[in-house]
Amino acid sequence: MNLDKFRPAWSQVKAMNHFDQLSGADILTIIENETQETMRFSWERLARYTVLYSLLLICCQG
Amino acid sequence: MIARVIIMKKLQLIGISIALSRMDSTSDQKKYFLQTISRYQGLINSVCKMYVVNKPDFEDMRQEVILQLWKSLPAFRHESKISTWIYRVAFNTLLSNKRDTKKHSNYLSLSEAEHDSLAVPVFVDDEIQHLLFVISQLEDKDKAIVVLYLEGYSHKEIADILSFTTTNISTRMNRIKSRLKEMYKTSQHEPR
Predict the structure, then answer these.
(1) B120-192: which CATH architecture?
(2) What residues 137-156 of chain B have any CB closer than 8 A to a CB of chain A?
(3) Which of A57, B67, B88, B139 lies at 20 to 30 Å from B37 by C-alpha?
(4) Of A17, A22, A57, the CB nearest to B7
(5) pLDDT tens for residues A10-30?
(6) Distance of CA B53 to the CA centre of its chain
(7) How many cross-chain Cβ pairs, A to B, lie less than 8 Å apart?
(8) Which of B3, B69, B73, B77 is nearest to B41 (CA)?
């Protein structure tokens, strides 16, 4: 069976499903929680590195 | 003492500027992500619909795929086409999700399957109905292979996207083709 003949049909399926759109707000809601988690983690990491870097500077200056 | 205070102030400023630049890059990323998802929503929807039977499951799957795309966006280095990256993330998410679902042996009753079903509307083209029927008869991994083949990817590229070997893809493609041939023969002999 030749699958190639289904190529135009697959393009039509994609075009047909394009109308079932999620709004920008919906997408943002999906990713927002994840972003908040990542940001929280970044702040923690930033604080940790800042403390380490300051200690290093203080110690190296004698 | 004064030197230490100055150093601390400078460090604070560096910290703030890093945080601000991260916030800027995050909002740029969000904008880019929204545009990408809107542009490729047809692809994402089509792929998700191949693996589920009802609307709530479809919405969950689509949400999961979008979340995984967002998580993997920082690692995307634009070395491949965006559509290739979307296919890679979507199929890996869907296949691993299906594996997990099978582990919990989720048997769907007929009434559940019919509820909010994603059945193909009757007004669509015969060729589309035929394609969707063919895809629905395949195993999960084979569905992904067929879709990527229809998108024009070579066996090597399909293998790369799905983390299979090229030989494995070639073998599976031959098996799919002979299975579909059998199916086609049988359906031709069946009264309509």
Answers:
(1) Orthogonal Bundle (1.10)
(2) 146-147, 149-152
(3) B139
(4) A57
(5) 999 999 888 888 888 999 998
(6) 16
(7) 100
(8) B69
The domain B42-109 is placed in CATH, from the list 1.10.1740.10, 2.60.40.10, 3.30.1490.190, 1.10.10.10, at 1.10.1740.10
Paired tokens of B96: 């691993």
Q: Is A16 on the interface with B (CB under 8 A)?
A: yes
What sign does the CA torsion over B157, B152, B133, B57 have?
A: positive
More confident residue, B74 or B14: B74
B68 interface with A at CB cutoff 8 Å: no
Predicted confidence at residue B20, as pLDDT, reads 47
Q: Residue A57: which residues within 8 A CB-CB, separation 6 or more?
A: B7
pTM of the model: 0.71
